[in-house]
């Protein structure tokens, strides 16, 4: 990818000051920038760097007045920071979707269809009866099982494994190593102490605009027609466990290494920190915030609480209790002292009374 | 897969009422069923649906008497629920084992043998001197290292990685992304603060009827001739860590994200909840039950205990202590009040005494 | 691999007693050894086995005097244990680096170069502009993205996924399923409750002599030019989460299932036990030791502490507090008793005073 400074300026609705034909390949920080790169200057603290930077272009505020010579081409805009952020997003989109075509060898089963501008990396596997939308990127070594459906603009990173029957919406990103649709953990204890496998025949539904990190696992639902559901806009980090029949509500964010047990329903706009554990068959209210390593063993009915501990309770109360926990040996000592004082006093008293 | 209602009825030892030649492809719930699907009616609460369902067949109790017209073919049995469950299991087995043959490209090294009715998916890799039994399914992108042995009827899902020398028994299921036989975490501290790798030369043995979830890791044992052992019937969930030289006893069940440190021996018929951590070189007695997020730092000698906390103790005692923990600031306050009362009183007393 | 006893003895600087032409293929314990294997005798407790072992050779102390007939060839050395350990290391190195050549099909993009004695397993994928050093082993189904650089003698196990732009040093080992360079977890909340993805454009740098276990995830840094950095000699276990912009200092060891949140900087020579969680934007001092399941929510400034709990404090203090925690119901009871005694006494008093 390569753009002229003039093209970038046009995109940002900015004005070029200097050589508009200079070529831009990459973005960088002003203090690190090299030729072919574009940087920005927003915070006056960094002004010094604009006189020494090797950046081919720098985005600056409209009213910027140079106090020394500037060799970089300038792009004048209203808000350099948000212009740069817009460029970052554009650049990220470009590199995310730049791959296209079909690398060989790759595998696609009978009766499967793919949309326009698809990428199918080498050693990727697509089963039978799969429907894949436009602009989808199936990276190398990814696996897409039979009867899977994937919407438009979704990116499946290298080595993702998607079991049969999974549905994935539009604009999703699934990172490497993640497993979607593996069997729920269901085993019926037998009289001889062994366990019989409960067949897992449901699927996983991932709605639009969902991001899933690396090496996360989302199990399928148990029964035919049931689904483990990840609602629109959910963001899942790495190494998360989502058990069978779980539902994660719209725009809920879950940090790494958290685990949700079977059939639990997480509300909308919740924030779950890392290494949280939630037991099965619970309902967690909307806007619940769970601190790191929290353990939830009962449903949370009131919305908007911030909780922590095992089992969880109010985060401020937890820290107050924990402050006393740290002094427990002292408390214990004081209690014993007091007991002996009271005992001594009472004895003394009873003898004098 | 497609069966006639008559074939299904024969399998269940049931009687057909209606069109026995109707074709069945799938199972469903009575309220959701579509043509080509079979459902069941057991709970009278659902009777209404039998008059509106589109199911091609419904399994009902022998003595079921329709109060309105039923268009579905009926299969009359003693116990519709257990008949349906039997069908689910049969169906699950069928779809689990339906793939066979060798997709190309796939890789198999010298001197490796595979049994009857094998499936080797595209981009699967089998090393040298590997022995694989009958009816084994090696799904796409799975890796089976040199000198590995796998019994009969074992399913290796897409992208599983099995290091050299691993032994896996009969009727096992290993889900996607799981790694078996990676190096144990052994490093000897050196005087300069660096660490020297302790060579990991043992292997992993997985006995019969073991299920392992997705993205779990089972490390090999350290020494030649030693093994990390997963005994018969063990069920491991997703994202579990099993370190070098661990042994997990028969019919023990371990939930997601639990970690067992090196050389620890877990007994038989234990139940470990999610996110449990167990330190190294311990012995955990049979029938031990560990609550979620429990931390075990000492061996557990008495069988049949239910434990929780870090470090663990009796689960009921834990919850009693925790109830007081939540009121610790109040306890602290009351103790201070009492101290000042006693102090005041004693002072008053000593002045009057 | 096969060596004569004489060759092994020469390597160890030992003296052969018996048939120096005997062939050795493997190492074993003296009590388990079979023909073709070499064992050692160091602890006198095991002397009995030297008279019955089938080992083709046994390494013994220089001054060993057999009290019965020994059929194995002996190799006499100063320290049998360390000689055997040296053999183990040599053997481990041999098997780790024995694979070489290019298996087909495998994929390599334009403008990528590999050094001498390389192994590229079947279904491995190397992108464009990749630079790989000498003696590097890219195992089957591994993925190496565009613009990646890998030093010499580094082993990439089956199915590892390395995103574009990652730098990996010399003598590293990356185990199966590990993901390096996936997007950091960065999302900006929007007014409508949804989240906007913050582009993740940095990379991951792994220095020399680093080992990473299986199914670990290391996210890339957020900004261009920034990196998530794993310093020289770091040892990471399985299923670890390393978020964007984290730095792990030289020779730090981290056990399984631990998670480090974004932008946190871990010092040198730290020891983190399993299932530890560390919040974002913290600094952890050198030589810090964190116990299992510890939760760190503030920076740790003093070096060399041993900490545990959530949030962490001194490990000895924690266990003292925890000992009282286990007796909290009793404490609570005693406090109430005391309160009622004092109350009764004061009442009695106030009535008599």
Explain the layout of strands and helices:
The structure is a homotrimer of 353-residue chains.
Chain A: E1 3-4, H1 5-12, E2 15-17, E3 23-24, E4 26-27, E5 37-40, H2 47-50, E6 57-61, E7 73-77, H3 80-97, E8 101-102, E9 107-108, E10 113-114, E11 119-120, E12 125-126, E13 131-132, E14 137-138, E15 143-144, E16 149-150, E17 155-156, E18 161-162, E19 167-168, E20 173-174, E21 179-182, E22 187-189, E23 195-197, E24 203-206, E25 211-212, E26 217-219, E27 227-230, E28 235-236, E29 241-242, E30 247-248, E31 253-254, E32 259-260, E33 265-266, E34 271-272, E35 277-278, E36 283-284, E37 289-290, E38 295-296, E39 306-308, E40 313-314, H4 315-325, H5 328-352
Parallel strand pairs in A: 4-5, 5-6, 6-7, 8-11, 9-12, 10-13, 11-14, 12-15, 13-16, 14-17, 15-18, 16-19, 17-20, 18-21, 19-24, 20-25, 21-26, 24-27, 25-28, 26-29, 27-30, 28-31, 29-32, 30-33, 31-34, 32-35, 33-36, 34-37, 35-38, 37-39
Antiparallel strand pairs in A: 1-3, 2-7, 22-23, 39-40
What does this structure look like?
The structure is a homotrimer of 353-residue chains. Helix content of chain A is 19%, strand content 28%. Chain A has 353 residues and is an alpha/beta fold. The first copy, chain A, folds into 3 domains: 3-97, Udp-n-acetylmuramoylalanyl-d-glutamate--2,6- Diaminopimelate Ligase, Chain: A, domain 1 (3-Layer(aba) Sandwich), CATH 3.40.1390; 101-315, Hexapeptide repeat proteins (UDP N-Acetylglucosamine Acyltransferase, domain 1, 3 Solenoid), CATH 2.160.10; 316-353. In chain A, the strands form 6 sheets. A 12-stranded mixed β-sheet of chain A has the order 8-11-14-17-20-25-28-31-34-37-39-40. The first copy, chain A, has a 10-stranded parallel β-sheet with strand order 9-12-15-18-21-26-29-32-35-38, with no helix packed on it. A 9-stranded parallel β-sheet of chain A has the order 10-13-16-19-24-27-30-33-36, with no helix packed on it. Chain A is flat. In chain A, 54% of the residues are buried.
């Amino acid at each position: 990818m390569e753009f002229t400074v003039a093209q970038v300026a046009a995109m940002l609705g900015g004005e070029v000051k200097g050589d508009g034909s200079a070529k831009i390949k990459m973005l960088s920080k002003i203090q690190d920038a090299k030729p072919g790169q574009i940087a920005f200057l927003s915070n006056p603290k960094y002004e010094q760097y604009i006189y020494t930077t090797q950046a081919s272009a720098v985005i600056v505020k409209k009213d910027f007045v140079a106090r020394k010579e500037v060799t970089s081409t300038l792009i004048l805009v209203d808000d350099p920071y948000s212009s740069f952020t817009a460029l970052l997003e554009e650049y990220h989109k470009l590199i995310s979707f730049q791959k296209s075509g079909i690398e060989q060898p790759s595998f696609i089963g009978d009766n499967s269809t793919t949309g326009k501008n698809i990428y199918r990396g080498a050693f990727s596997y697509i089963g039978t009866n799969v429907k894949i939308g436009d602009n989808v990127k199936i990276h190398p070594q990814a696996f897409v099982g039979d009867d899977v459906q994937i919407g438009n603009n979704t990116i499946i990173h290298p080595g993702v494994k998607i079991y049969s029957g999974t549905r994935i919406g539009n604009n999703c990103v699934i990172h490497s190593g993640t497993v979607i649709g593996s069997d729920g953990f269901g085993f019926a204890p037998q009289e001889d102490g062994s366990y019989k496998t409960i067949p897992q025949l449901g699927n996983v539904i991932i709605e639009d605009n969902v991001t899933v990190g690396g090496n996360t696992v989302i199990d399928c639902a148990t029964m035919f027609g049931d689904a483990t559901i990840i609602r629109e806009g959910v963001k899942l980090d790495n190494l998360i466990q989502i058990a069978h029949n779980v539902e994660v509500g719209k725009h809920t964010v879950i940090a790494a290494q958290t685990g949700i047990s079977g059939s639990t329903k997480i509300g909308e706009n919740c924030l779950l920190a890392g290494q949280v554990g939630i037991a099965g068959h619970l309902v967690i209210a909307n806007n619940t915030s769970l601190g790191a390593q929290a353990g939830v063993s009962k449903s949370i009915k009131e919305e908007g609480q911030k909780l922590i501990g095992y089992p969880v309770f109010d985060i401020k109360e937890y820290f107050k209790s924990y402050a006393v926990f740290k002094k427990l040996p002292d408390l214990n000592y004081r209690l014993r002292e007091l007991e002996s004082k009271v005992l001594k006093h009472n004895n003394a008293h009873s003898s004098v009374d």
